[in-house]
Amino acid sequence: MEKTPQLADIEDLLTIRDWLRYATSRFTEAGLVFGHGTETALDEAAFLILTALHLPIDQLEPWLEARLTISERRRLWEIVTARIETRKPAPYLVGAAWIRGHRFAVDERVIVPRSYIGELLDGGLSAVVADPDGVERVLDLCTGSGCLAVLMALTFPDASVDAADISAGALEVAAKNVSDYGLEDRVTLHRSDLFQGLQGATYDLIVSNPPYVTAAAVAAFPPEYAAEPELAHFGGADGLDLVRRILRDAPAHLAPGGVLIVEVGMARDLLETEYPDLPFLWLDTEQSDGEVFALSAEALTAR
């Protein structure tokens, strides 16, 4: 009996090493765009293969010579083909993304988690939080998948966490992630247009990764980025529409000694020009330089 093209193509792809080479070649040939947790075709291939096979995401080497069953090879064929044909971000295809070793459920209702604030939380926000035990109430504004809210709950185990987003669909995804980490008693989700649904609430710490992409950049998105909710990217003509609202309204929601932390992409020069009286503290990470700022409640109130 003549083999179907699919079975013929996967017959010689026996090991994970074979599939890693094959997927890397196919992704490079297709000219895919990365940036949703990986930066190269090789890393993208490794991510999809390990996740699809339910293997540890940070351990490739031990499995390279592992031989795959026919059903596993078919699964990898489907995912590699889907990545090329749909141009969807890889995390959507496997329903998962990672920040600093923590797994989060994702789908097309939310932007793929990749905030630099996740790395800062991994270090306890030590540059701006002198007394972690004193952090009792925190807010994740524009929570999306809820990843930063979960990470804040893990970083500050004595704190209660509010997580707000305007998107009902995003909050459904966030609810799953909160439940997956068993944090329902500490993380409360709110449907809110920034602070509008949080009247009267004050916090020791507010973090936000709001939409901050310019209109021109959104219009020029490659398919991978266009697959994400535009609402989660679009920040107006210059990208700062929501950031301006956050700066305006945050003072009313910060407790004395509180801190506001916001990711703004490449808008540092524009912000410093527009707000020359604000003493922005720029928090660099391993992968970013001047893309996240911190401001104290006192600095915002003085302005």
Automatic annotation (TrEMBL):
Family as reported in the entry's similarity comment: Belongs to the protein N5-glutamine methyltransferase family. PrmB subfamily.
Pfam families named in the record: MTS
Recorded GO MF terms: nucleic acid binding; protein-glutamine N-methyltransferase activity
Function: Methylates ribosomal protein uL3 on a specific glutamine residue.
Keyword Methyltransferase: yes
UniProt-listed PANTHER family: 50S RIBOSOMAL PROTEIN L3 GLUTAMINE METHYLTRANSFERASE, RIBOSOMAL PROTEIN UL3 GLUTAMINE METHYLTRANSFERASE
Domain Methyltransferase small: 136-217
Cross-referenced SUPFAM superfamilies: S-adenosyl-L-methionine-dependent methyltransferases
Keyword entries, A-Z: Methyltransferase, S-adenosyl-L-methionine, Transferase
InterPro entries: DNA_methylase_N6_adenine_CS (IPR002052), HemK-like (IPR004556), Ribosome_uL3_MTase (IPR017127), SAM-dependent_MTases_sf (IPR029063), Small_mtfrase_dom (IPR007848)
Alphabetized CDD domains for the sequence: AdoMet_MTases (cd02440)
Gene Ontology cellular-component terms listed: cytosol
Catalytic activity: L-glutaminyl-[ribosomal protein uL3] + S-adenosyl-L-methionine = N(5)-methyl-L-glutaminyl-[ribosomal protein uL3] + S-adenosyl-L-homocysteine + H(+)
Broad class of enzyme this protein falls into: transferase
Highest taxon of source: Bacteria
Protein name (database record): Ribosomal protein uL3 glutamine methyltransferase
UniProt xrefs under NCBIfam families: hemK_fam (TIGR00536), L3_gln_methyl (TIGR03533)
Keyword 4Fe-4S among record annotations: no
One example of a Gene Ontology biological process annotation: methylation
EC number: 2.1.1.298
